[in-house]
Write a structure and sequence with these properties.
single chain, alpha/beta, six-stranded mixed beta sheet, 11 helices, globular
Length: about 325
């Protein structure tokens, strides 16, 4: 298979797996692994260019929604993340180029160490931790509750490498196929058992009403007014959940914001047993923070994240002067 086709398939499978079917990242990583192994025979700068482009494809396909913010912030995130991903790859290249027998063990160790360290600093981006890809198929990885998400990364890397080696090493096809099946099936069966048993224990059903406005290019006042007229005669559940950024942006210290809540207060007066839960952009000190807002007839509650998004919500001191200029 030619290199451009591998890049295309890797990007396509990454997009599908991160958004719909996490298990498909196993063949995606097999392509990832294949391109890396294939590039070990090249000069170091050719290797770095190929891997950088591989990381760029990965970042764009997985976090394509960043382009909805601003072009320069998304481009900067794609570039910097792809650049940092080069570190474990280049160290693996140096250590295993002459002896590829240890490639998997060295790469696995360095990559998990990279993911762990990458989640600790100011530019943490845990969304890209490979183990998180199974979030949309959580019933297959209930064992994460015992091992943590980094062992999920190990699991997917091993499965992807075994899958590609089934084809690469003809003499070991049966052995590699057996290892792949055991590693895939055994944890999945255990997880399905844990999921089925836990779902029956202390289960409490809560009915909610989900509300999404038809248009996003309206003001906060128009959105809340529409919510009132759409739902006032509707048989709603005790909890009404709206989208992540239902209101944008809200300055919680501004008296002008009160008119945004006129129809919400009116709605809660009509349905006093209802609790509204929606996302909003909280504006403070020229920064925007994704937050959750919970409101019922008696009280209101804001909660914001403890870990902020780099650049947009939080700028390290070393870079603050540069971004103030921008």
């Amino acid at each position: 298979m030619k290199l451009p086709i591998k890049y295309f398939l890797f990007g396509l499978l990454s997009f599908i797996s991160w958004n719909y079917l996490g298990i498909l990242f196993i063949p995606a990583f097999a392509l990832f692994y294949s391109i890396t192994i294939q590039s070990l025979h090249e000069k170091w700068y050719v290797f770095l260019v190929r891997v950088f482009f591989l990381g760029f494809v990965f970042n764009v396909s997985v976090t394509f929604w960043l382009m909805g913010i601003t072009w320069w912030e998304s481009g900067l995130a794609y570039f910097v993340n792809s650049l940092t991903m080069l570190v474990p790859f280049f160290l693996t290249y140096i250590l295993t180029r002459k002896n590829q027998y240890y490639f998997r063990a060295v790469f696995l160790t360095l990559w998990v160490l990279y993911e762990f360290l990458h989640s600790q600093w100011d530019f943490a981006w845990p969304w890209l931790t490979i183990g998180h890809v199974m979030g949309n198929m959580h019933y297959l990885v209930q064992w994460y509750s015992f091992t943590g998400v980094y062992f999920g990364t190990v699991w997917i890397i091993l499965l992807g490498s075994f899958l590609i080696e089934i084809d690469y090493k003809k003499s070991l096809q049966r052995k590699n196929f057996f290892r792949f099946c055991i590693l895939l099936v055994l944890p999945s069966v255990v997880s399905l058992y844990l999921y089925s048993s836990n779902s029956q224990k202390d289960a409490k059903k809560i009915n909610v009403t989900c509300y999404a406005p038809e248009k996003s290019n309206t003001t906060n006042y128009q959105k809340t007014k529409k919510l009132y007229y759409d739902l006032k005669n509707y048989d709603t559940n005790p909890f009404i959940i709206c989208p992540e950024v239902f209101l944008e942006p809200v300055n919680m210290y501004s008296g002008f914001q009160q008119k945004h809540f006129f129809y919400i207060d009116k709605f809660l007066n009509d349905k006093p047993e209802t609790t509204l839960i929606f996302g909003t952009q909280l504006k403070w000190n020229r920064k925007l923070f994704n937050s959750i807002f919970v409101k019922n007839k008696e009280e209101s509650l804001y909660r914001i994240k403890q870990k902020f998004v780099p650049i947009r919500e939080f700028i390290p001191k070393a870079l603050q002067r540069m971004f103030d200029v921008w």
